[in-house]
Amino acid sequence: MKIYEGKLISEGKKYFLVVSRFNEFISTKLMEGAKDALLRHGAQEEQLEMAWVPGAFEIPYIAKKAAASGRFNAVICLGAIIRGNTPHFNFVASEAAKGVAQAALETGVPIIYGIVTTDTLEQAIERAGTKSGNKGFAAGLAAIEMVNLYGEIK
Ligand code: INI
């Protein structure tokens, strides 16, 4: 059986990061984590571009535009959706997840979902470089793997 696996080499590939400004304290840490993963696996700073969007709800719109431009091997979506006292959280979280998945399927470009969805601010902090690692770093690794895997399957 032939098995396909994406290598963790980001050299020569271009990445676009979409980062939400809402809960910017968390999303900046996720962005730094993703960048760290890309650079430490061989990417050069010049291969990276990023955009700030107001909130996670707006992420899919810009992720799709970046993916459809054909200039990037992968798009990485980063943000933090933290539960509040109203149902707003549910709408933002489900639209962000649905929109990112839809953008990836429609463009055929790997679009990585690095948006943390948590019940509390503490849980978000835990996922932004403390107790539970940095989900941005994990999203960066997933992007590298998907780009290489995508290139493997002819
Ligand atoms: N945006 C987030 O990125 N995280 C959140 O936790 C959040 N909550 O809970 O409200 C949030 N809301 C803003 C939303 O993404 C849009 O920017 C806004 O509704 C304008 O369209």
Structure description:
The chain has about 150 residues and is α/β, with parallel strands linked by helices. Helices cover about 45% and strands about 20% of the residues. The chain is built from five helices and six strands. The chain has helices at about 25-40, 60-70, 90-105, 120-125, 135-150, and strands at about 15-20, 50-55, 75-80, 110-120, 130, 135. A four-stranded parallel sheet has the order 2-1-3-4, with helices on both faces. A two-stranded antiparallel ribbon has the order 5-6. The chain starts with 14 loop residues before the first strand and ends with a helix. The structure holds 5-nitro-6-ribityl-amino-2,4(1H,3H)-pyrimidinedione (INI). The site of 5-nitro-6-ribityl-amino-2,4(1H,3H)-pyrimidinedione has 16 residues, from β3 and α3.
The tally of helices reads: 5
Query: Are any ligands bound, and if so which?
Result: 5-nitro-6-ribityl-amino-2,4(1H,3H)-pyrimidinedione
Shape: globular
Instruction: Report how far apart the termini are.
Output: 16 Å
Poorly predicted runs: none
Q: Could you tell me the mean pLDDT? A: 97
Quote the beta fraction: 15-25%
The share of residues in helices is 40-55%
Largest sheet: spatial strand order:
2-1-3-4
Reading the helices and strands in chain order gives: EHEHEHEHEEH
Radius of gyration: 15 Å
Described by strand count, sense and barrel closure, the largest sheet is: 4 strands, parallel
> Strand tally, please?
6
Broad structural category: alpha/beta
